[in-house]
Amino acid sequence: MQDFAAAFSHAFALILSGDADLLQIIGLSLQVTISAVFVSCVLGLPLGAFLAVARFPGRQLIVILTNAAMGFPPVVVGLMLYLLFSQAGPLAVLDLLYTPTAMIVAQTVLVTPIITALTRSAITDLMQEHGETLLAMRASKWQQITTLLVEARPALMTAALAGLGRAFAEVGAVMIVGGNISHVTRVMTTAIALETSRGELALALALGIILLGLSLLINAAAIGLRPRMLGHVHAR
Prior knowledge:
The protein has 236 residues and is mostly helical. The chain has one domain (21-235): MetI-like fold, CATH 1.10.3720.10. It contains 10 helices and no strands. Helix 2 packs across helix 7 (153-169).
């Protein structure tokens, strides 16, 4: 028990002192995760809205695949990207393996289906309410998509926060394509796994406390958006 108490004490000391290694790991984690979620939103929001509004052959198959992709095992995604980016892979010329960019790509692959599926669900609900009005106004598909995306802002923020939480918790894929290299590709989740395996609990606990705090903030933000979503619905 004394060892655990000492580890917790050291962990809080690292946080309060602004330890350089701790801050570097946190900074890279934020850079990778926020970049991946931003790209996922750029891809997933319009794609989800398009799947909700458009009707075309193969649409249902894409919806099924998107929903299935939400449960992709991260290590499998990491392995597939490793094969693509490795020296024998078709994308070796990009020289992305063991870089933050490869980690961003891995998280984007994992997060985009989540944002796409949640966006499609939100826009589908709005389409049932406003679809006839938009058709009566002879709005084009892209005008419908733009209008509904604006109307669904609170729900889309919740989708983005869900993606953010997923990205922060990811470890398997980013460890495979990033390599967990100190001061290069080491993020909070991979550092926690490494430090725990080495028995260095202080840094692992410090990062765990920070990660838990970020998770609580994300969940609080998502819960805080719910009254706004309900108020938005009642206002209409």
